Amino acid sequence: xxxxxxxxxxxxQSHVVHDVSFKTGQGEVLAIMGRNGMGKxxxxxxxxxxxxIRSGRIVLKGMDIxxxxxxxxxxxxxxxxxxxxxxFPMLTVEENILAGTTTSGYRSVPDYIxxxxxxxxxxxxxxxxxxxxGQQQQLVIARALVSDPSILILDEPTEGIQPSIIKETAQIxxxxxxxxxxxxxxxEQVLSFALDLADRFLVLDRGRIVHExxxxxxxxxxxxxxxxx
Length: 229
Prior knowledge:
Strand order of the largest sheet: 6-7-8-3-9-10
Helix content: 25-40%
Oligomer: single chain
């Protein structure tokens, strides 16, 4: 589904992501773990096209999408949920969700979205800026999903969210990815959330992959050692 080959990304003179390579399969969830400042967000922004790459390839379903603009990557099947949520605060919940339908062509919010996120249906006429942090996070995930992506990219989805909503969000994403058969690539620091969701784990340290393991054999303590300051 997605193959990243020797990706290098940086800002100005800073080289942030060093020769990162990985693959994901159809319907798989890949968690990219690491402390703040280790390059996770930079990597994900490069995947969606918000940052240019210095070298390497990003191959989606057999096509190198690295030369494409962000909106072209969305048309090819990527969707991105940024860190910090970024709802449109003055638009209603429904209007926020429909902002993501450019490529899918939905004229109304599809039933599966409101079935997965019933709180959004209840609040569909409320302005996005008036929702709680957890509700806003569900809103931006819903907005990304209505593009019918092949790959959903989530950047620190648990940041600032209360534990009960974190657990609920993992359950919703698990149900949806099995139902809709999309792949998830997420960056995360909360190991419990990643364990609820991910099939495979990468650990990024100073812009390099330093550990890779399947969930079935995951050494929890080793991963935690990379997450502590």
